[in-house]
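User: I'm putting together a teaching handout on how multi-component assemblies are represented. Below are the sequence lines for each component of a complex, exactly as they appear in our records. Could you produce the 3D structure of the whole assembly as structure tokens, so the students can see both representations side by side? Please keep the chain order the same as the input.
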Amino acid sequence: MNVASRIAGARVSISGLVKTYQTRDDVDVLALDNIDLTIERGSFVAVVGPSGCGKSTLLSLVAGLVEASDGRIEIDDQHIVNRPHPKIGVVFQSDLLLYWRTVLDNILLPIEIKHLDVKRHIPKAEELLRQVGLKGFGNKYPSELSGGMRQRVAICRALIQEPGLLLMDEPFGALDALTREQMIMDLQEMWTRLGNTVLFITHGIDEAVFLADRVLVMSPRPGRIALDLTIDMPRPRRWSNAHENPGYQGYVRKIREIFEAQGVLVAH
Ligand SMILES: Nc1ncnc2c1ncn2[C@@H]1O[C@H](COP(=O)(O)OP(=O)(O)OP(=O)(O)O)[C@@H](O)[C@H]1O
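Assistant: Of course. Below is the structure of the complete assembly, with chains in the same order as your input.
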């Protein structure tokens, strides 16, 4: 099994997606309202929006972890109904590693859960570790690693089954600024190499514009797509000088203007 090979990116098609939660005291909370969205194979789409606008809800719906109230989600033409699609991998803000399992056993967990051949996947897990700069860390326990290293392991765990669609929910939100910067660049490199589709949720306008082919800006709840912005900048992009690029600055300004118009950002 060659993990260095490219992964066929999945296509995501969302139409008329609505999600209403019922709170414990029976109040309806309309989290997402009528989302239409197509994500092309192999593209990197980032979603930014104010806190509580429904970004995580969108990701959970696509992941099949939450049931839609209305509308339809298809991944490679397969309708998602409250059940994860086999072609997805998910990375959350918290690494969610099991502290009693070694790094290698954490990465192999999805294989074990699906009753696949664990032994056959060990070389692939080790290769993934090498690719994220953690060669030789397979026998360590999560408590022996830094936050950034643990998140790299979580990414390996999401990639072990070569997912055509990688869903990332604020994956670098809990990391210090330097580690975050390194992880952003590493993610760009990894995605360029693998070629899978990525749906990336973030609060960070800077990382969204830097990483994505397209940035979706959401409105405050109920979440709707307020702006669908194509980021036309050559790759590989360099974090160290991207901020000086007038194109980059223009995209960031456009997104900030939307947040200012929404009253999410207030200039003093
Ligand atoms: N299980 C739930 N029951 C009731 N309401 C919920 C539930 N989950 C989310 N909500 C509500 O739905 C809305 C959207 O939540 P969601 O977590 O998707 O937002 P978000 O944009 O990811 O927020 P943040 O950026 O702060 O993580 C919020 O108002 C939230 O309170």
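A couple of points students might notice: The chain has two domains: 1-87+165-268, 96-162. The pocket of adenosine-5'-triphosphate is lined by residues 21, 23, 29, 31, 49, 51-57, 221 (CB under 6 Å).
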